[in-house]
Amino acid sequence: MSTSCILRNGRRVFALISGGRRGTCALCGVQRRFIIDLSYSTHFMDFKGSSIPSSMKKLMVTKLSQHFRDAVALQTVPVPTPGDGELLVRNRFVGINASDINYTAGRYDPTKKPPFEVGFEGIGEVVGLGLSASSRHAVGDTVAYFSDGAFAEYTLIPAQKSVPVPAVKPEFLTLLVSGATAYIAIKRLGDLAPGQTVLVTAAAGGTGQFAVQFAKQAGCHVVGTCSSNEKAGFLKVIGCDRPIVYKSEDLAATMRKEYPQGVDVVYESVGGATFDLAVNCLANKGRLIIIGFISGYQTASGIPTIRGGTLPVKLLQKSAGVRGFFLPHFLEDYKEAIGNMMRLFAEGKLLCEVDCGDLAPEGRFVGLESAFRAVDYLYAGKNVGKVVVELGSSTLDSKL
Ligand code: X1H
Question: Which listed residue, of 8, 9, 190, 375, carries a Cα 20 to 30 Å from 87's Cα?
């Protein structure tokens, strides 16, 4: 057995998986790298006889573009080795976010040049880990994470970023970015009181579904916009008092007629004309929370146009406010948010709707290559709930 002592970032770390012993799987012919116990602890033991292959599929941004298919390529790369404080996670589900294309367009960090990895969140099993990570984790742990590079069969994550989950269910994945965004934005910026009115745009989407439920739980009257009757039905199920199908109803006219005093809070993710409309229906002292502006992301600038010139006047006239919300700026609230949402889900008080594309034209999103279809599906506004891609083949499943 070769002892694996590698240099990573200039530091010496002991790897808990090793390329020392390799074998070819008799069933599929894939070169596998066995997990080898390099320690004196059962933490590093082979997990239920499973092995991990030496190579894997991964999506990489090879060119900056706001069009996911132009920006991203499917590559075969070596399965990485965990450094000291890292976990190697075999992803079973990965989450699609509207902002994935802001990332592929280089908007998150304009200094970052391709190639770089993509994907914000995943859930799966720990299959390898570094020495200091082993004080709190073990091979076989089920974890979810909000970290870079999720669109891969295996992802290395810093152990501190892992969220322990009771099972590898896609419902838990919905909480990491979409749920946490709604929970923290509403709690920290909403200033909700019972009896107030909240408007949620794209209410049946990945994050909208949570905003509806948290506003309802705060004792508010909730109005939600969506694009179809099917989505309006879903909104009713999650407690939305007034679903508005904006394709068949004039949203501005309905708001003027039914909410002449305006709404206290808007949870807004569409941008452009929808943002303008949201400003117009704010009540006195209303709060508009910008969590995104999806209507602009596929354009060159990424920014939809608004009637900005009148914004200061309108805010002044209503003593209203507009606040932006970007999840990484609120990580101090993250643990509490995830813990509370997990408890609500376990108690049956939170519905986490997952859309794996079962009704999509080419069917369920299975395998990394289906991330392309999944992004298109989200941008076509077809999803009800969070768009999730399932990874992992049945042959691997039988080994784990
Ligand atoms: C450092 O802070 C940020 C914040 C947002 C860095 C990048 C962004 C970004 O790319 C985003 C973004 C991120 C999350 C989210 O939920 C929505 C959005 S919208 C957006 C953006 C879009 C177009 C641009 O030209 C610039 C930013």
Answer: 375
Report yes or no on 399 lying in a domain: no
73 in the same domain as 127: yes
Residue 30 Cβ inside 6 Å of ligand 1? The answer reads no
Domain limits for position 320: 175-331
**Whether residue 120 is found in the same domain as residue 203:** no
How remote is the CA of residue 40 from the centroid of ligand 1, in Å? Answer: 46
Cis preceding-peptide flag for 115 (omega within 30 of 0)? yes
Q: Take atom 26 of ligand 1 and give the residue whose Cα is closest.
A: 107
Other CB atoms closer than 10 Å to residue 191's CB: what's the count? 13
pLDDT digits (tens, 9 = 90+) for 368-384: 999 999 999 999 999 99
Centre of ligand 1 from the C-alpha of residue 13, in Å: 35
Half-sphere exposure of 294 (CA within 13 A, CB side): 20
Q: Does ligand 1 lie within 6 Å of residue 102's CB atom?
A: yes
pLDDT per position as a tens digit, 282-336: 999 999 999 999 999 999 999 999 999 999 999 999 999 999 999 999 999 999 9
Same domain, 247 and 274: yes
Same-domain status, 161 and 259? no
Q: Residue 27's pLDDT is what?
A: 55
Candidate of 65, 102, 297 to mutate for ligand 1, largest count of ligand atoms within 8 Å of Cβ: 102
Check residue 30 and give its pLDDT. Answer: 57
Question: Is the shortest distance between the CB of 23 and ligand 1 below 6 Å?
Answer: no
pTM of full prediction above 0.70: yes
Atom of ligand 1 nearest to the CA of 301: 25
In a domain, 398, yes or no: no
One-character DSSP codes across 43-77: GGS-STT-EEESEEEEEEE-S--SSHHHHEEEEEE
Question: What's the gap in Å between 108 CA and the centre of ligand 1?
Answer: 6
pLDDT tens, 119-143? 999 999 999 999 999 999 999 999 9
Torsional class of 193: left (φ above 0), alpha (ψ -120 to 50), beta (otherwise): beta
Locate the ligand 1 atom nearest the alpha carbon of residue 302 and give its number. Answer: 23
Number of domains, the chain = 3
The answer on 205 and 71 residing in a single domain is no
Q: How far is the CA of 267 from the centre of ligand 1 (A)?
A: 16
Among 107, 267, 301, 379, name the best residue to mutate to test ligand 1's pocket (greatest count of ligand atoms within 8 A of Cβ): 107
Q: Let me know whether 263 and 295 are in one domain.
A: yes
